[in-house]
């Protein structure tokens, strides 16, 4: 081996990564950067144009909901700074579920700032017993590692972050430990109820995946349907997205810029409408 042959092997690995099914999500991640913005009151968007991340300013520290993709930590830190916050003030990090595209910066925040990491208890168990289903091996770097979880979230938990209570509901489906949560935000005059559903993808519901995971009877599909029904009628003013496609977030941002007098993120029907769509889509998938 020589420096030249090592470099050529490195280039081949990079090209191979681009050709993988999910490879595009680890290439040129900075091209997905979105300038952060205030959604409403003390809720801010700091994610990219694919995977979401949000900041809530509790007045006694910041909550970060999700930590972006692996390899995108610098981009997330920049977004938090650009939004007007110090990343060192992120006291709590709530992970919606245990997949690689949502846990990227968790280790950095924990080691750099002492941020406490929260994750649904079944997904914390997946970290320990089935780490391959986190898909961290799909990332671009062998240096990526799973983070240590400080608090395991259980169904019905109400956790106070500073003075802000957040109610958690486990909604198994996309993963066993996927969480939904509900809390109030305010602009100083009017409180709005936020709802967050931590994972909608059907990629983990395919027969081959569930058989490998240990669910040959495909029970997780039925768990997903029950999860949607479980929280469908929650009163939600602002549907906080997990991926931008959930609420067409980028289009809403453009609407906000075009007409600052109207906030398109305030929509009391968006939550139930989208959950109904996912129910119908899943029933169609199960029928085929």
Overall pLDDT metric:
95
How are helices and strands ordered from N to C?
A: HEEEEHEHEHEEEEEHHEHH
Q: How many H/I helical runs?
A: 8
- What global shape is seen? globular
Q: Uncertain runs with pLDDT below 50, 5 residues or more?
A: none
Cα radius of gyration in angstroms: 19 Å
Strand order within the widest sheet? 1-2-3-4-5-6-7
Number of strand elements = 12
What would you say this structure looks like, in words?
This protein is of the alpha/beta class. The chain is built from eight helices and twelve strands. The protein has a seven-stranded mixed β-sheet. A five-stranded mixed β-sheet has the order 8-9-10-11-12, with no helix packed on it. β8 and β9 form a beta hairpin. α6 runs antiparallel to α8. The longest helix is centred in the C-terminal third of the chain and has 18 residues. It is globular, with a radius of gyration of 19 Å. The model has no long low-confidence stretch (mean pLDDT 95).
């Amino acid at each position: 081996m020589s420096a030249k042959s090592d470099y050529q092997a490195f280039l081949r690995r990079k090209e191979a990564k681009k050709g993988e099914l999910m490879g595009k999500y680890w290439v040129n991640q900075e091209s997905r950067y979105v300038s952060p913005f205030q959604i409403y009151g003390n809720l801010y968007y700091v994610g990219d144009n694919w995977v979401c991340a949000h900041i809530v300013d509790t007045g006694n520290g910041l909550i970060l909901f999700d930590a972006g993709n692996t390899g995108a930590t610098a981009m997330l830190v920049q977004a938090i700074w650009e939004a007007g916050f110090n990343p060192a003030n992120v006291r709590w990090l709530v992970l919606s579920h245990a997949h690689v595209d949502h846990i990227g910066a968790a280790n950095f925040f924990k080691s750099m700032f002492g941020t406490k990491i929260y994750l649904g208890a079944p997904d914390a168990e997946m970290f320990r017993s089935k780490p391959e289903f986190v898909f961290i091996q799909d990332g671009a770097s062998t240096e990526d590692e799973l983070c240590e979880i400080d608090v395991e979230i259980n169904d019905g938990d109400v956790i106070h972050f500073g003075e802000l209570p957040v109610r958690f509901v486990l909604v198994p489906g996309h993963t066993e430990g996927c969480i939904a949560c509900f809390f109030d935000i305010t602009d100083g005059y009017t409180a709005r109820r936020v709802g967050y559903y931590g994972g909608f993808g059907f990629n983990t519901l395919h027969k081959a995946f569930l058989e490998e995971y240990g669910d040959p009877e495909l029970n997780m599909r039925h768990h997903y349907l029950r999860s949607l029904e479980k929280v469908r009628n929650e009163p939600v003013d602002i549907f906080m997205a997990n991926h931008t496609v959930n609420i067409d977030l980028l289009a809403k941002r453009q609407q906000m810029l075009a007409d600052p007098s109207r906030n398109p993120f305030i929509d009391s029907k968006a939550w139930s409408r989208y959950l109904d769509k996912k129910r119908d889509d899943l029933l169609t998938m199960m029928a085929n």
